[in-house]
Each structure stands twice: as C-alpha cells, then as structure tokens.
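User: Some background: our group keeps a shared notebook of sequences we're curious about, and every so often someone picks one and asks for a predicted structure to add to the entry. Today it's my turn. The entry only has the sequence so far, pasted here. Could you supply the structure so I can complete it?
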Amino acid sequence: MLSGDEEAFTALYRLRQGAVYRFALQMTGSTAVAEDVTQEVFMTLIEHGNRFDPSRGTLASFLYGIARNMVLRRLEKERPTETIEDCAGEVDLLGDLTRRETIEQVRRAVVSLPPVYREAVVLCDLQDVSYQDAAVALDCPVGTVRSRLNRGRSMLVKKLGLVKKLGFAEPVRAAEGTG
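Assistant: Of course. Here's the predicted structure to add to the notebook entry:
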C-alpha cells in the first residue's frame, strides 16, 4: 500500500471503513462527523502511512488511534451541552419506551460519557477490540484501558439505572464474579 497500490488500498478501505465509521459515530453521535472523520482517517493513512509500525500494534489499532485523535479534536471544538438527564424525561413516560427509544437512550448515555471513558467503552464493548489493541489505539497501558472501561461501565449503569428498573436486560456487560 505504501508503494501506491490502489487495489490494496481499496481492499483495506472496504475492510476497515465500517469499523472506523462506527467508532466515530459512537463517539460523537453525529453521522456527519463520523463520515468526515472516516474520510480524514483514510486520507491521513495515504499521506502518512509510513508512521504505521507493526511492532507497536495492528493496523486496525493504528486506524482507531488516528480516528480517536480526530474525534477528540472535534469534541473539543463542539462541547455538547445535552446530558443523559435531558433525555430521561418523566418516570411516567419511561413506562412507554419502545426498543428503539431504549437504544437511543443507551446511545445518548454513551455519547454523554467523558471522552476517556467513552473511547474505552466504544472500542472494547461496542467494537469488540481487544484490550491490547485498544491500548495501542489510545496510547496507554492495558491496565489503564481496563480501569477506564470499568469506570465507563459504572457510569453507564448509573446513567441507565431507570432502564434496568423497567425490566430490560442490563445495557453493559457486567463483570463476572460481582454480586
């Protein structure tokens, strides 16, 4: 690819574009931003692909790292003011939630997490990235990924406490052995 192989780049784009887009969408909650970030990630790969070092991690974690940096820059520019409490509404209304509304509630809860916890939750829980690859993408030790993931999950459980009261399945994976 670094030698200008257009077919190889096209194959790589088709393979990885969806995951990069989903990561950006789940981090920002905006399809427009996710599309921009996805395009910018692959443009950066074309321009600066020589920065990829396979000894540091996989190409997927390299792409997530680029996407993460771009998303964080966007988030700093556009500080969201809406929180999960804004969309929770009245307790009486929560009894009428449909599955789609519940999914939207979870999406908003994830987007309302502070970015350091959100990126760990999005990568590890929503994108099924390994802790090792997430650590490379986030440029931190695996232990830090685990602690951010644990804290992010705890925050989600608190934010989504009303969902659990309605009898829906718990929205995040619970740690084994806790009770």
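Suggested note for the entry: The chain has ten helices and no strands. Residues 82-94, 170-179 have pLDDT under 50 and may be disordered.
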